[in-house]
Structures are given as C-alpha cells and as structure tokens.
Amino acid sequence: MQNKEYDVICIGQIVQDILVTNIPSDALTSEKDTFMADEILFASGGDAVNEASMLAKYGNRCALLTRLDKKDVGDMIYGDLVRQGVDTSLLVRPDDCRTFTAIVIIGPDGNHTFFDGPGHNFTLKMSDIDLSVFEKTKVVTAGSLFALGELDTDGIEVIFKKAQESGAITVADMNNDSDRKGPKAVEKVYPYTDYLMPSYDEAVYVTGETDPDKIADYFLSAGVKNVVLKMGGDGCFFKNAEKRFFTDPYRVEPVDTTGCGDNFVAAFIHSLLKGMEPEACAEFACGAGALNSQGLGAHLHIQSEAQVLDFMAGAERKTLGRE
Fold first, then answer.
1. What is the distance between the alpha carbons of residues 102 and 18, in angstroms, rounded to a whole number?
2. What are phi and psi of 17, to 5 degrees?
3. Which domains does the chain have, with CATH numbers?
4. Structure confidence by residue, pLDDT tens digits, 162-173
5. What does the alpha-carbon distance between residue 236 and residue 245 come to, in Å, rounded to a whole number?
6. What is the CA radius of gyration of the chain?
7. Half-sphere exposure of 125 (CA within 13 A, CB side)
8. Which of 14, 198, 200, 266 could pair covalently with 54 via S-S, beta carbons 3.0-4.6 A apart?
9. How many CA atoms lie within 13 A of 96 on its CB side?
C-alpha cells in the first residue's frame, strides 16, 4: 500500500467501561444489599476504541474519529487513548456531548452482560467530518454498524465511498440493533464495504439465514467484497468471490470475553496491512481474540504482535472438521 499519514482511521463507539467480576446472578433480586466483587475495573471501551487501541499496540498509525465529552469521563478516556498510542487529533468534543457508561458484569464462564447508561449527543454527524481526511489513510473502519447513530442510515456509505475512491480499504464491524432500526437499515453501505465482519448472531439477525455460506452469500450479493463471520468459540468463516474457508478456534478457558470480537477485527486489519493472505489474517485474528479472553478488559491484556504470535505457537487448537 502507498505511504499515507494514517494506517487506519477508526470511526464509531467510545464508551467508559466499568467491569465487575464475581457478582451472583441473583444479585438484583436477592434480599442481600451488599456483594463483594473480585475486581472492579474502569477502562475506556467501545468498538472503535478497542480496535484503535489494539491497532496502535501492533505498531500502526491509528487515529480515532468519534465524539468525546469534555468532562471527567472524557478526560479519563482521552488520557487512556494517549497512553495506548492512539492519534487523538480527529476527536470531536462538543460542549453538550456526554459519553455513555457501560457496566459490564462478567460471569464465571467469562461471558458478560452489559448495563448501558444514558449518554447525550455522543455519536458523530456528517457535519463533524472533513471527508478529505480519508485521502490520508490506508484503511477506514466503522465500529460498528447499528451503533453509529445517524451515520448508519445517512452518512457511513458516503464516507466509505470517499475512502474507496481515495484508495483506502473499508472495514465494517456490526453491533446489536439496540435502537431497532431494522435488519435492512445499513444496507446502503454494503456496495462500498471491502470487508464486513459481523458476529454470527448479528449476521443471522440481518440476513435471516443460519448457514454460514448463505449468510455470506447474502452480503456478497448486496455488494460486500469479503465476508468474515466471527463465530466466537467456533472460530470464523471467510468467503469472497474466489475462496471460502473456516478457521478453527484456539482451546481456551475464557476469563473475560469483552472485546474479543473487536480484537479479532483489529488483528485481521493489522494482517491486511502487512499484505497477508486471508487465511493468515484469519489465523492471527482468531489467535488475538482467544488471547484477549485470558485477561480482563476489552483491550488491556494484549500488548504486542509478538505476544499473540507466542500464544499461537503454544496454544492448543480445536479441530472442528468443517469443509
């Protein structure tokens, strides 16, 4: 890829995460009024933040383009981004923006439940964006579709079209449709999406299909160039016009699955930037997703590419025998 100012510009969610472990499942209905958690951890989060933080740790020049408030929460997150090595020059900080907080309850099996608090005016608008910035980057990511506010239905397709015209690769993650926009709400962006990386459940919601091939075919027929289906403990599935394959997962006992999908996306993009083939990109992405699950937080456990490669060299793989 030609040299540009940025390797990646990440557009999307920014959140304050409060992670809590070892809370009984009946805590909200119990007569007991106090419980002791094993850990309570404050951290920055959100799909775009997680992806940007990991891409920066892998050595990429990564900028975050989103809204961030000017109050204590925003300043905490800003400091965290600087420490992670993320370029903050594109952040938009309106006076009336209030970044929202997510309380993440982590169960004994590593799975999590989110309690999202209210925010205000925290999603980007087209008026925040100078489209010429996308001429300066190799990759543009949307983290995530269905969580971009008004850009989901009026804007992200314009951004991706401009990025492609400027020679950038476009990558989109997905999120749950918590605002009930409907499964077809983001379909305008598909013709301008080089890599779409939904989770299996998100893809089932959008397509109405359950078979990975049929899911991928739905998106490919809508204009997406490459589909990467994240399947959690079952690895991933890749398909484009020329090839299709499954990648088997690593055998791990999760401590915390928060952000594993975002780590997968960041690792796949990092591999693309290195010029790797899809099979190798998927291998590294599955390794990063699995390794992230071995510590608390969405982007705190992994510190370098070498750490992921060491994990992959020694970790056991599941063999699921799919064709």
1. 6
2. -95, 135
3. 6-23+38-314 (3.40.1190.20)
4. 999 999 999 999
5. 9
6. 19
7. 7
8. 266
9. 3
